[in-house]
Amino acid sequence: MLLTKLAKKICQSKEYINGISLYKKKEWEKALLFFEKSIIKKTKHAESYFKAGICNLKLHRYEEAFKYISKALELEPSNIQWKEQLEQCARHLDKLNNHMVSKSSTEEDLLREKLNTDFNNPKLHDRLAEVLHKKGRWWQEVDTLKNAIKLDPSIPERYFKLGTALEKMGRFNEASIYYKKGLEFNKKHDAIWYYALGYSLESDETNNVENVRSSKIAYATAISLDKKLNSNKFGIGAFHQYKGRWAKAIDAYEKHTSINPLCAELYYRLGLSYDRCYQWDKAAENYRKALSLDENHPYWHYRLGFVLERSQKYLDAAVAYQFAAQSNIKHISIWYYRSGYAYAKANKYRQSCEMYIKAYDSSQEIYASQIKVIDNNDTHLNSYRKKLKYESRINTLESAISNSCINYGLWYELGKTYESSCNWNDAVIAYHEGIMRNNTYTKDYYYRIGYSLFRDGNYQQACNFFRKIEIFGTPYGAPDDILTKNLTFRRNATYTEFYETLSIEKNTILYESFHGASISCNPYALFLDIIDDQRFDNFRHIWVINNEKKIPEQLKNKKNVYFVSRQSDLYMQCLASCEFLINNVSFPEYFIRKKGQRYLNTWHGTPIKFLGKDIKDEFLAHKNVARNFLHTTHLLSPNTHTTNILLDRYDISNIFSGEIKELGYPRIDRTINLSSERKEYIRRKINANVYDKVVLYAPTWRGIHGKATLDIEKLKNDLEKLADQDCHIVFRGHHMIEKLVSEQNISGITIVPSEIDTNELLGAIDILITDYSSIAFDFFVMNRPVIYYAYDIEQYNNERGLYFPLNELPGTVCFNDVELLNTLSGYLRNEIYFDASKGIDKFCKNDDGSVCGKVIEWFFFEEKSILLNKNKNKNILFYIGPFIPNGILSSWLNLISVIDRDKYNISLVVDPKSIHGFQERFEQFKRVSPDIQVIGTCGNMLYNIEEKWLNDKLNNQFTLASKEMYDILDHAYQREFLRLFGYSHIDHLIHFEGYNQSWVIRFANAPKDTVRNKIIFQHNDKLSEWRERFPYLRVVFDFYKSYNKIVSVSEKTMELNRDNLSEFFNIEHDKFIYCDNVQNPDEVIKKSDDIDTSGFIFENDKIYFITLGRLSVEKDQQKLINAFCRLQKLYPNIELLILGDGPLKIDLQRQIITLGLEKSVHLLGRISNPFPLLKRADCFVLSSNHEGQPMVLFEAMILDKPIISTDITGSRSALEGRSGVLVENSVDGLFNGMRDFILGRLEFKHFDIESYQKNALSMFYEKCLH
Question: CDD domains given for it (predicted)?
Fold first, then answer.
């Protein structure tokens, strides 16, 4: 133990130790800086990554936290504590789907492992049930709680939890049974238990008389025991209200009004229930009844105003809000705000302004609009005071602003001074300038503009600014406490609000380089040309810069240039409203380009090192860049190589709808056109005299995606050796590397000041030393020597990858410091010849010094572009789920292997976090053909407060109470589809998996103008799945009507699903079609020839039955084991192989032990290649209770394997007229079938796979894609 601790300490860097010191003091931001420095020095130090992750977690930067902790786990995958922290990050990121397996199933796995050895511990079952409940896997929670109750039936809470889980499953009658049992043990007689019993009895579909009577008794008991909800006065509706069952509350309260017809609060509660169901008119009617009986409730008036506003009766709403605000003892600003908002909607602008002013004047400073004088009769004193107070102050402030234009506080003070002197118009201008320079959304600025406009008599415009006082000013019928509880949600909701409410500001340009790290690269080069172009004289220019110290001095006092910090309130406003957007990397994951906005992405270099999906350090690390490209209207490329990388390696060429042009790079104009005066200035700044040969060393960054690391000791040694050469060495690198170099105090090395633009620097140097950086391509145009110092090329190529050998580029490649120094010496003495002409022809032929002008004409003035990525093929976009190895995935892999690529482009959208970290899923993902373009989702779905509330309600209750609720949610998912895919052109959108609720709704709301055909697959008996396992399928069925085609995988499954679902969910009959599953016989046969049988040894004198499938309730292996047990008593030489994994594994293990079958029934787990075992076995048996069209049956038929299957719809459709025998779906049926096989009584046909395959593919083309 002591040696282990000592070893760990030796591995710790000085930076890590300093970070820990700050970490213990909870100084997260400072600690993070040290941990990041530690990572740069020790790239394999897992603790540094983990601690950096925790710091980000504490700072609510959940995406960064997730990345760091994931990296830590890559280095130490067995650390359970870290896995739990990763799961916490995932929850914060809303990456967990309620209805799918979560990213980290650590605790569940641990509990199942413990249950293997301690099954009789009911507390373990209890804890597992809690975990399953949180994941929404209620069907498994039910079985787990039943196990706990069997082990210890005396705990009443278990019955209540079991009843709740059954209730979630819609199994109300069974839920009532367990509630009753729980009440037998519960001596506390909690009212809520009796309510739960009554609710389950009332909700039971049988509606038998006894249940109705028992329900009433249970409700009456609940009311009699209630001490919290006042139900003795308001009836059972109070319980429904408490549980958020508003539709039930309406029915109950309506009935109770006949018992208590003059109870004001009862009508208020009834109104609130209608309110929560978005039935505004009914809500208003009952609120009015309540107020007619008792008007002394200001909040009731406020609620009346709200429902009137939602029903667009704005004047009535404004009056109700006003009455509420003025009659309330406490001043509530938002009530006056809502009155002002509604008055403005009713075109009563003066009244609106008055309400807004009442809302905020009580808490804001009121500025005098008249001058206080010493002597009213002394005009000289008045004049003196006026000049001193206003004119001189204004001059002082304007002078200060001319020296510090970016100081928003000065603009604010200027606005106050203008306002005090009644100069309303100039006050408005000054305040607005302050707004445009203040990164933090400040209410007072908007109030002051509104007030100034009001005083100037411009009431309507004043209302527009008063309305902006509140970011979340839209009338939402949902609680807003989530804004303070979840900062990530608040940020996204803020952007969403700006996106939905702000109009596009004409003649505004937003520039961003390297996520706001600098003002540089192509956007800066374009900006410099634009700012001097008279056509842009009336434009506002907004630069994203995170550190004001990095703003070039010459820009600080330009009044038409503004600076915003990335991720700030002001940044999100500009992103949602600027007409033109220019970026060289990517905007944040929440960004959505509006129609009417133009977005130019210039990228930032010709790639040598791998980009996009070729990057090896993180799964789909390029996802947000690809998403940004899909939003661009204009994509700039310097050459054909870069064009191919941007389109193909980011997997967007299929569906990209923007324009792309190869015009060269604007930033290289600055290198080519560098004036002699500017060159002299730069050389002075880097301490080079006129005779010096200036050598720039500019290494690329190394490390995980977006995080730079470098061997600092090697860098120091190399720089010291370079400094001894007969030249002047200057260094430029990642800002963190530059800081570390500066701390080394290396004599003779100059770090290039950040104010000097890299491309201007290239025009002032003589020799470039780099490695894998695109800076080399920019320097080619100077036709001066380039040295590639690739000392770690083997490691770098393995970790990151290169598109071509460095020796194919102009210049010399050096692999160690000796070669580097010799080569540099040769170039300095002109002993080595350098010629960049081939590199220029291939990569820089468009860089002629006038690229900026060409790009400006193209982007701003709509020069018609010739698209380079024309493709006449139809585009198919699939969603297939999280790549869980199962029949659905096999079916899809088979299908895409045969789709004609000469007619169709195939794209696939995936949730990276549902795949990465799950080895078996990732292995399946690697089977995807390289020609399929993969789009990875990133970021959280955007919601406003109300949309989030409705989405949570839908996830919890699986239905919404009104069409308006669905319309609101539809709009949110329409926006989400746009966020993920931009304005991509998609011909066929196919939800092949058919289960994931979020993706069902996303695809259902895909825009009809860009998506022609929406298809969803049904792989099973959906009604049975809904009732037995997945209650959320109710939501899926509700959205079927938005799809063009609902595809089952067999005719009989289609008929079953159509008959079960069409009438209840109002789905047109002709939307239901079927297509047989496509197979891949060549792969099955090839894999079956593998001699590896996963360690299992077959004996010649035995008969082997085999089954493959997930160990879950619908596959019902328990039934098969029971049948096999009976059969083995007659035929002892038989064995059963069960392949697969799943939640019933423990139950099956115990069943096998209980029946004494350990030597003859083998649970072999999930095997990546099961076909050798299937081929060697004698007979395949399927015991499922429901299936769509089981892929495993076809795989068995391809191998000419005898088949016995339960007679269910899916199996019948697969086997009828083909090979295989159907038996009764029971233990007896399986027993008889297997016995008949042993006795040779069964006949099996040969399966004509070629005919089947041809017909299945033809079905897909003609039925789905026609």
Answer: GT4_GT28_WabH-like
